[in-house]
Amino acid sequence: MQRRHPASRTGRPRSAAADTAILAATRQALVDLGWSKLTLSDVAVRAGVAKTTLYRRWAGKNELVVDAVAELFDELTLPDRGSLAADIEGVVLQFAAILARPEARSGLMAVVAEATRDEALRERIRASIVDRQKRLVIAGRARAQERGELPPEADADRAARAVDLIFDMVAGSVVHRTLVSNQPADEEWVHGLTRVLLSGLAASTR
Questions:
Q1: Where is the HTH tetR-type domain (predicted)?
Q2: What is the mean pLDDT of the chain?
């Protein structure tokens, strides 16, 4: 699993175990306390580390919370289920399962709400969560092209726009379904979403 870190600094080497404990403690603190009451001091106590350890790694609460949330989405993988439709359904079901976890729901809703008035936080969310998870769309399209399910894309700009659109459609639909409408993204719903998405992909390549 890949992980984002601030720029490296001189001094003692980082502890992966400490990082894991800090990010897990941050997510639990969000569930227990919410964004407004979460402090780095509380996270340090929960993680069993000194507060200075947090400040050596993260500049403040915004950066720490985004990285804690982003770590959850790094668990997503692209399964090879034999077809583009099945692959999409596999990823979407994983995504929905992550969003069903209290720490993911609390963390994502907190950073999105806070980002409405913080451009730097919005940019960190884009870089650490959105742009990183577009890897799944890129890999899925490439695999579908190798199978002959999608035509190759010679125009790089058009391909990038397609990746953005697919990601927005999938992520936006699942987040709205699970976090806004508070409805289950079960297999029947995911199958319907995939069918609509593939219909749009077919139309866009004609």
A1: 16-76
A2: 89
